[in-house]
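Is it possible to get an amino acid sequence alongside its tokenized fold?
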Amino acid sequence: MKKYLFETEDTIYKKKKYKRIKRIIILTLIFISFPLLHFSYTEKLIQQSQQEFFNQDPDCIVVFTGDKGRIAKALELSKKYLSSKVLISGVYYRNNLQRILRHNTSKTDKFKDHFSRIIDLDLEALNTSQNVDETLKYLRKDQNMKNILIISSDYHLPRIQIIINGASTKSFNFYYQAIESKFSFNYFLNIFKEHLKIINYYIPIKSVKA
């Protein structure tokens, strides 16, 4: 004789509860793994640039404006790589070099004259894609530009690299340095935003800004 198993309300409830717990665990693992993989990849990019420029200077240091500390990081590296030009991309059109230096250097900084000679400003770029476009326009004006060091926030670097790799950049070698973020809710949030923007880069979505 066939045996028929009938589920009780208790077993149905337990099954639903198990499924909910399973979904929560999977979503939690995804939520944790994204930032960890993102962080690991960013660290790899930074290490590559440190190795490349251990005994030589980049031809140009390019900083994409945005979060606090990016310009200061570029200026600090410029003191180390004295022969490098510096491009600050995405500067607010009402801003100028004197104001930028005043907000990112001390009054006694002896490198201010040096910065004034080697820094150029890009006032056109409004987002990352335009940062890349304006940077390439700038680099193509000088045939001596070959090895380029890009500065931004750590969570931002993978998307910059994707956009650069999608452009016509065979004439240049790009390396990356970053402002390192602390692990926090905002750091996780920024990474998920970056992943949405990466998806938007490949599959344009009007509601997600580039």
